[in-house]
Every structure is written in structure tokens, then in C-alpha cells.
Amino acid sequence: MIFGGMTHTVQAQTDPSILLKIAKQAQNQLENQINQDSSDKAKQLFREGTQQMKALEESLANNDVESAKKYFLSTMRIFKEVSQQLTNNKSPQTEMATLKATTEDPSADLLRLQDYSDNIKTIAKKYNTSIDFSDLDDLFVIAKKQIRAKQFDDALQTIGQIKQITIDLNNKIREYASQQEQSRAKDYAQKYLEQLDRLIENAKNQGLSENIIQKLESARESLSSTTDPHEIINQIKKLYQLKNNLN
Which segments does the entry list as coiled coil (predicted)? Predict the structure, then answer.
């Protein structure tokens, strides 16, 4: 960056127009460095410096050398501050680049996810689910390639996708297992409902008390209305107690 010095002072004494050339050169250099990511303060200072440079140009046009020198010093002081602002703004970017370069190898995380995925597949097979694991398998292949290529940041993103998919698949398997458990419990209950029907019919034929018949019918209603596997088991236990009391 071009900022004031002894050379500029000597040149200005012989040719004041050199001040404007120096200021414009500094302006052009800063203009090439400022972008949309630059701070608002740097942009505002640059606008102020540009205004001072215009005043410098007007002073030279009016042959007001003393004012021109003052505007020149003001312009260069502001442009120097802009340069410092731009330099400071580069620090976070450099830090981010350093952090990116030091991202650790996520192979251990990927290995744990592979084991977890294999376990999910085993459970899915146990319940005869029709879950498609092809997308998950493809992501594992991609992540391994990224790790081999030292593309650890990309691998971390892929691993994040794998984690989300395994969570979703695990929830699906849980739901499927719950449905199967309920279905088996209902089949189990149906067998005892048939026994209850025969028991109620026999109780009526044998002329047992209305109280006993009501208990049997109440037990049947409770057993037929529940879908909770644990509650079905409890109702069947009560049924056994009723049968024992009748014998």
C-alpha cells in the first residue's frame, strides 16, 4: 500500500498534482481489496476517504496548494485505516482455514456407526422387515472414500447423514416390532377368547350363579378390548384364576 513518506513530500513541493496521483493510486488498491465480506466500518471509511480525495482534487483545481496538502494528509490517513481494517478482517478467514486443515480423521466414528448399522440390520432381519438399506450402504462407501482421500470435512458431513438415517431406520424397526408384538398378543388372546366362550356356555348349561357368569363375561370383554400385550397377559392370568375357582 502506498502511504505518505519523504519521497511524496519532496515530489509534492515541485509538483502538487502528484498528491492526487498518490491518493488515487491508494484508492484503486483499496477498491480492489474491498468486497461484500468487508466490514461496514471499512466500507464507510473508504467512502469518507474518497470524499476527502474529491476535496483534494477541487483544491488543486483552484490552485489552493495548502488546502490540497491538508486534504491529501486526511485522505491518506483514512485510507491507511481502511487498509488496517481489511487486514484485520482476514484473520478469522485464516483461522477457519487452519481449523479446516486440522480436522481429525473420523474413521473411528465411522467404524462405530458401521457396527451400529450392522446391529440394526440384524434386528430388521429378525422381524422380517422390508426396509431398504441401500442408501445407507452407499453413504458408508462414500465416507470411506472421502477418508482415504483425506477429505475429512466432507466425510464428517456424510457421517452426519449416516447418523440421521440410522436413527430413522431404528425408529421404523421399533414401530414394526411393536406392531408385530401386538399382532402376536392378539392371536394369543384370541385362543383364550375361544376358551372363555366355551367356559361361559358351560357355566350357563350347568346352571352356575349369575355372579360367576358375569365375571366370565366381564373377563371376556376386557380381554377382547385390550391391544396392549402386557394387559392381555394380565387378563389371561385372571382367566386362569376364574377357571381354577370353577373347578
Answer: 162-206
pLDDT in tens, 110-125: 999 999 999 999 988 8
Neighbouring residues of 82: CB distance < 8 A, sequence distance ≥ 6:
30, 34, 42, 45, 46, 49
Can you tell me the distance from the alpha carbon of 203 to that of 70, in angstroms, rounded to the nearest whole number?
117
Residue 242 has what DSSP assignment?
H
Listed residues 99, 127, 145: the one ending a domain? 99
- The Cα 191–Cα 196 span in angstroms is 9
My answer on whether 41 and 160 are in the same domain is no
DSSP reduced 3-state for 134: helix
Alpha helical stretches, state H, the chain:
6-14, 17-33, 40-61, 65-101, 107-126, 134-148, 152-205, 210-225, 229-246
Q: How far is CA 131 from CA 43, 101, 150, 173, in A?
A: 56, 38, 32, 8
Q: What is the pLDDT of residues 189-235, one digit of tens each?
A: 677 677 777 777 777 777 767 777 777 777 777 767 666 656 665 66
Based on the domain organization, do 90 and 151 belong to the same domain?
A: no
pTM of the model: 0.42
**What are the angstrom distances between the C-alpha of 59 and each of 17, 131, 162?**
10, 80, 67
Which cell numbers hold the place of 60? 488543486
